[in-house]
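Lecture notes, unit on binding sites. The following record was shown on slide 14. It pairs a sequence with guanosine-5'-triphosphate.
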Amino acid sequence: MQETETQKKSAVVAIVGRPSAGKSTLLNHFCGQKVAITSPVPQTTRNRIRGILTTARGQLIFIDTPGYHKSEKKFNLYLKNLVEQTLQEVDIVLYVIDTSRAPGEEEELIAERVSTFQGPILIALNKIDIKPTFIEQIEMFLTLRLPKALRFRVSATTGEGIPQLIQVLFDIAPEGDLLYPEEFYTDQDPSFRIAEIIREKAVWETRQEVPHSLYVEISDLEQRENGSLWVRAFLIVERESQKGILIGKGGSKIKTIRLLAEKELVEIFPYPVYLDLRVKVDPKWRQNDKLLTKLFQ
Ligand SMILES: Nc1nc2c(ncn2[C@@H]2O[C@H](COP(=O)(O)OP(=O)(O)OP(=O)(O)O)[C@@H](O)[C@H]2O)c(=O)[nH]1
Ligand SMILES: [Mg+2]
């Protein structure tokens, strides 16, 4: 039956999976906007990022989560806890699997956790554009672990298979009112988005150990008379050597990060954003419970 005006669908969908499975890329594709930052470095996402898709059928609210990673380190436990919390709060689980990697111990763990979810579970077999593929092995693994979950072969990069997945998400979503206004595609506040974009540029511009040791803090935000936004942000790393990498020779690296971030922010905000970036060292930030609680929500 065709849904009428009074039978809109509305569901909250958790996007879960291993680090680098393509969860955030998929979220961005669903929303048609860059809502979450992405990178080839595992554990890029550290927060629950909401992205909203509104169509004539209703509204899907996706919650992107940090990659489910097997580790007992404090930092990882915080991220894992966010996934656990999200699984308690949603109507549907979308479990994303990278078909270019063999399912290992970590996939076993997450499949086991997902299998305890009481509601509908859909599986996105992602990165089908990459060859060779482990898809047959993964299909066998899922037949054993999650036999009832519907599977979709998709590519978050090319968009292949995504319309079919969205259609089924709406099919199984409960009826309900829209939770956000139609024009919303995320609920993030501007300072979080700015911090994330700065972090993304820094992750792409540095490798080695810098990305995992970095967080970004916005210290000042000022709307100028000409309408532009001036932002001071600190990039905080754990070691002096990392500070040196981020600053680069004669300040060249931090300048590149600033220019790349400013260029992207112009596309998101209806006014120019000027960044004043500073680099600081805090050797123990990943041990600081108060800070971790504030940062990772
Ligand atoms: N070829 C290909 N690459 C993809 C696809 N989806 C994601 N990627 C790439 O995989 C890498 C990880 O993507 P993310 O979206 O950041 O992965 P994630 O699951 O959010 O990772 P975490 O936040 O670290 O858990 C990036 O380099 C993406 O460009 C896909 O369908 N095909
Ligand atoms: Mg991510």
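Take-home: Residues 17, 19-25, 38-40, 42-45, 66-67, 126-127, 129-130, 155-157 surround guanosine-5'-triphosphate (ligand 1) (CB under 6 Å).
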